[in-house]
Amino acid sequence: MIEGKIARISGPIVYAEGLDQCGLYDVVDVGEKELIGEIIRQDKGHATIQVYEEDTGMRVGEKIVCRQRPLSLRLGPGLVGTIYDGIQRPLKTMAENSGAFLLPGERTEPLDTKKVWHFEAGADASGAPVAAGTAVTPGMPLGTVKETESILHTVMVPPYIRGQKLKSFRGSGDYTVDDVIAVTEFDEEICLAQYWPVRQPRPYADKLEVSEPLVTGLRVVDVFFPLSKGGTAAIPGGFGTGKTMTQHAVAKWCDADLIVYIGCGERGNEMTEVLTEFPEIIDPRTGRSIMERTILIANTSNMPVAAREVSLYSGITLAEYYRDMGMAVAIMADSTSRWAEALRELSGRMEEMPAEEGFPAYLPTRLASFYERAGRITALCGR
Questions:
Q1: Rg (CA), the chain
Q2: What are the C-alpha distances in Å from 255 to residues 227, 248, 330?
Q3: 380 FRET partner, CA 20 to 30 A, in 27, 64, 206, 278?
């Protein structure tokens, strides 16, 4: 770990000294409360840090510790049915620990590390059971976990694994997300859960053309504005014209296998409506609650603005993870306009030269890179 200290504070933007050896987008613990932050610019002698939590009361001279790793999500069984904030802290667990308000510096495990899951070992490409000595490749399925009644979770070899053969494999059994189920020839450990940087798209073998419609369940949309699986769409409109209600309807009734719903800068009552309605809706495909195939990310307008910027990346990373299992995932980003407003606020505090309407000059690039992460693909395992 590398230590520095705060030199200047401008709202959620903090300038630090002594972090010259840190990398761009490294995670840092900021101040006495150890708030989560991320290095977003490196100048000679100064690092610019985006703080994802409320930093009221922070003082110049407080310590900053760099973790020398990028901001990453923990991906594994237990994601479905959970509501997270923008940096993957489960809000229900935080409410049980500290009450209804987010406390600065609070740390909560994104996945339940005590829950035991039943892992069912799978087979390799030739149909032989996975065992010690089996040849493995990044993205290869090792087995499955019944995550909910509606979702069969595939445990895959992480894309960053270099080993090509399993030295040991524990096989079917009951494990927590921290238990090691396999070790490669290079002594790399594989657990039920894995980490992945939110700003880095998950790799795939090939990108395919979109050729299949997404049935939204709304006939007016399917007839006049048809959507495709692997495609993207935006709903423009003024305040109160029904953009959010349309997204709610698509999330409830479309024929996707999994829904990732991001409330990015939206009103709190709109996310409350999702939380109260979704558990009561019966999925016509499974006859069970639709929450059993839904992940919610809530970063409402009263929550820290910097975390709003990263919440979209968190949502698309979760979607890509389940896409790699062979699922059709529908992701709702509500709304990218308020995400752009968050970028504008942070850019202004960093004293960057604004473009049209005060937005940063790199806004079109950021938007395009987000939308381009959607698509039909051939996964690394060949799915």
A1: 21
A2: 11, 14, 9
A3: 27
Give residue 198's pLDDT. Answer: 94
Specify burial of residue 275 (Cβ count, 10 A radius: 0-12, 13-18, 19+): middle
Residue 151: what residue type? I
Q: What is the pLDDT of residues 135-180, one digit of tens each?
A: 999 999 999 999 999 899 999 999 999 999 999 999 999 999 999 9
Point out which residues pair with 208 in neighbouring strands.
376
Helices 268-277 and 243-253 cross at an angle (nearest 10°) of: 20
Buried b (16+ CB within 10 A) or exposed e, 21-56: ebeebbbbbbbebbbbbbbbebeeebbbbbbbbbbe
Is residue 199 exposed (0-12), middle (13-18) or buried (19+ Cβ within 10 Å)? middle
Angle at 345 between CA 340 and CA 350, to 5 degrees: 120
pLDDT band of 382, cuts 50, 70, 90 = confident
Query: Could you count the other beta carbons within 10 Å of the beta carbon of residue 277?
Result: 13
Query: For residue 271, what are the CA distances in angstroms to 73, 175, 255, 330?
Result: 22, 33, 22, 17
* Structure tokens, 133: 């000595």
